[in-house]
Amino acid sequence: MTSSVTTLNNYYQGKNAIHLVSWVEYSTGPPHQIKWTVQCKVSGEVKGTGVADSKSAAKEEAARLAIVALGI
């Protein structure tokens, strides 16, 4: 199964517009219970936000939500 991050990247690479996609990542909480928040931005506009225990899971969720929001 292809990840949502890969799907999103492939979509914009195919349009020669990968430069439009950016990610904002930050963590909160104590070191033993960190929560990651990742925002997927397209042309500077937030299209998806994911929150999870790992950065990769949060990024995957943000990409999934962006794909839905963009109708990809």
Explain the overall architecture.
There is one protein chain. The chain has one domain: 2-Layer Sandwich (Double Stranded RNA Binding Domain), CATH 3.30.160.20. The protein is α+β, with helices and mostly antiparallel strands and 72 residues long. The protein has helices at 4-14, 55-70; strands at 21-28, 35-42, 45-52. A 3-stranded antiparallel β-sheet has the order 1-2-3, with helices on one face. It is elongated and about 40 Å long. Helix 1 crosses helix 2. It is built from 2 helices and 3 strands. Residues 3-72 form the DRBM domain. It comes from Mycena metata. InterPro entries: dsRBD_dom.
What's the arrangement of secondary structure elements?
Elements: H1 4-14, E1 21-28, E2 35-42, E3 45-52, H2 55-70
Antiparallel strand pairs: 1-2, 2-3
Helix pairs in contact: 1-2
